[in-house]
Structures are given as structure tokens and as C-alpha cells.
Amino acid sequence: MAVTLPLPAKRPLFRLGPATLVTAAFIGPGTVVTASLAGANYGYALLWALLFSVVATMILQEMAARLGIFTGEGLGENLRKMVRQPILKALLYALVVAAVIIGNSAYQGGNLTGASLGADAIWGQHSVVVGLKQLIGLNPWALLLGAVAVAVLWHGRYRLIERCLIGLVLLMSLAFISTMLLTKPAFGAMLGGLLLPVIPTGATLTVIALIGTTVVPYSLFLHAASSATKWQQQPDKINALAESAADLRTAIPLGGLITLAVLSTAATAYFGKGLVLNNAGDLALSLQPLFGAAATYLMALGLLAAGLSSAITAPLAAAYALRGLLQLSPLQFRLTWLLIMLIGIVVSSLGLRPLSIIWFAQVANGILLPIITLCLLAAVNSPLMGAYHNSRRQNLLGFAVFSATLLLSGRTLYLAFFS
């Protein structure tokens, strides 16, 4: 029987905190590109998939945050305690390393490349930038933005990292939502796309991509660990949970609104007009003749913020996951995220595209997502959670999301091996 908990003294409606790190993580160049292509190719028809992914993310991230607040440890630490059988532990660790560590190393190059595209669209024509590119023969934005991300993480204080990412998320919100409003979308069609689930011919892969770029396992590690850090000094768990809930219902829907804005902008500019969109950088540049220079600069600014925010959170999430599983020392924790950051800087500055590594990471991620979802459900139903364990409603919602992740992962693996 569920225990009725007393109401907290204060119940904030909205706030920004650790869930903002999750938003900063999933609103990266990959999400911007996926949303842009979804809007350009299918208009507003796939907005329902975005709505589902936001709801599913909120369900899982609430459990991860509650686990971190109550146990004072991240998901990795809890998994290490839960999984005792040596073979199962070895398999789980291998999957986490493959999907989170290797995967984030590969994706980090894309994060910095996406941020570089945004910066280049704004300042790329400046003579100093052109001269620097010719002089060093590398992507100077990748070096500069990578250095900024290293500086933020090197400081090491959670409060600074949180504030930096809140600033970047707010910047993304301002940029992408303003761009959407400038393009004057069809709000009636948007509402229909949100409420009427349809899959146009050829859109299955895009649906998978829209959901898969939002519901990702490394965000669970990131949120549980950051929540444990944020509220570790607060003995009143009831108020901590209330603050976390307010944070969750602010940050995650805001991330969904940002993705909706990108998709809507691409739909307005491209859908039904016989134009072909190759990447998000093209979308930023193509808006100028249609909607003026302001739309181009706002879109580019949003892409810059999205890439930089993900460039900060991806190495951090990987380091949190490995620290929890392998009990890394503070120095090893720092070296983990630094190695991932350096790999991303090299990949982006040289213009490399490690497709085989990304393919491998996607396969591992497809296997890991339902497994981590199931482990999370087991953890929040553990007797160690006491009165903070899942309710029946939370379990029903959790297993519904688990079923969806299982189908999603199965489809992803099928396409990876047989398409």
C-alpha cells in the first residue's frame, strides 16, 4: 500500500534546475537536424511523435530525479549495487560503455560541428575568421567552442554548470521560438499534428529519430546524478521532490517547445514548396530571402547554443555514468569527460565523420535504452526507496514507456542491420 506523504511547506509551480541539463543534452544538433527534416519533408504531421517523446521523457526523468534525491547517488551507483551477478554486471557495463561513453565520444564531434555551423552563419564572413581558417587549415570554431566547454566543466562546480546551461537553454528558447514566430506558422495545422497520430508514407524512420533523440539513456544518468548533487545538503526530501517536480515540468516541456519551433520553422519554409533541405545550417541560411536577416541570425544563434549546450552535457553524462559504475576518483572523473571532449574537438576541427563508430553507438544505444528503463523501474520500486517508491499509476506509465522503448529499439536494430 502506498504511503501518503505530507505536503511540502512550499510548492513551486515552475523553476529551472537539474532537468535543464537534460533539456540541454537532448536539444543538440542531432535534434535540430531531425526536427528540421521532419518539418521540411512532412510538415506538421509528426508533431504527435514529439509530444509522445516529451511525455515519455518526463515520466522516466521524474523517476531518475527521485532516485537521485532519495538515495543521494546517481543511477550508475544504484545499478552497481543492484546488479550482483558477475556475467550480467559485465554485460551491463559493456553496454553502458558502448552506448554512453563511446557513443558520446562520437556524437561530441557532431555537437561541436553543429555549434560551429551556427557560429559560421553569424560571423563566418568576417575577414579575421576567413584568414584564420586559411592559416590553420582547421575549423577554428570547433577549437574555440571546445575550449569554452572545457573551461565550464573544468571549474567543476555544479552551480556554475547549471547556470551556464540554463542560460544556453533560455538562449535557445528565445532564438528558435522567435524564428518560428517570424515565419508565421499555421497554428491550426500544428494543433492537428499534435493531436492526430499519423505516419505519412516513408516517415517511419523520422518518427523513430524524433523519439530517439529525446528519450535517451545517458540523460537518466545525468539527471539522477545532478539531482543527487543539487539536493544532497537538503534534509527535507519532500520539498526537494516538490522543487524537482517544478523543475521537470518547466525544463522538459520547454525543450519540447524548442523542438516544435524548429520543426515548425522548417515546415513553413520548405514543406510543399519543392525545396530540398540538407542540414540545419542550410535552414538558417535559406530563411533570409524568405523572412529576412533576423530569422537567419536567430536560427543560427539557436543552433550555436544547441551545439554548445550538448557539447557540455554529453561528456558530463558519460563521466557520471562511468563514475557510478566503476567508482571513479575525482581525477578519473575529470579525465573521462576531458578525453571525450578532446575526441570531439579533433573530430570536428578536422571535419571527420566517424560513421562506423556512430553506427556502433546507435546499435548499443538501441539495446541499452529498454534495459536501463527496466533497471530504473526496478530501482524506484526497491524497498530502499521506502515511501518514495513508485505508485501503481507511475508503474503503469513506466511500463508503457518501457514497451515503447522496446519497440523503438527493436525497429532501430532492425534498420541498423537490415536496411
UniProtKB/TrEMBL annotation:
UniProtKB keywords: Membrane, Symport, Transmembrane, Transmembrane helix, Transport
How is this protein situated with respect to the membrane?
Multi-pass membrane protein
* Keyword check for Transmembrane: yes
- Please tell me where this protein is predominantly located: membrane
Q: Which Pfam families match?
A: Nramp
Which compartment or compartments is the protein found in?
A: Membrane
> Which InterPro entries does the UniProt entry name for this protein?
NRAMP_fam
| The keyword Membrane appears for this protein | yes
Question: Where would you find the membrane-spanning parts of this chain?
Answer: 12-36, 42-60, 90-107, 135-153, 165-183, 203-225, 246-271, 291-322, 334-352, 358-384, 396-417
Q: Which PANTHER family does the UniProt entry name for this protein?
A: NATURAL RESISTANCE-ASSOCIATED MACROPHAGE PROTEIN 2, SOLUTE CARRIER PROTEIN FAMILY 11 MEMBER
Question: What is the protein name given in its UniProt record?
Answer: Manganese transporter
Q: Which gene encodes it?
A: mntH
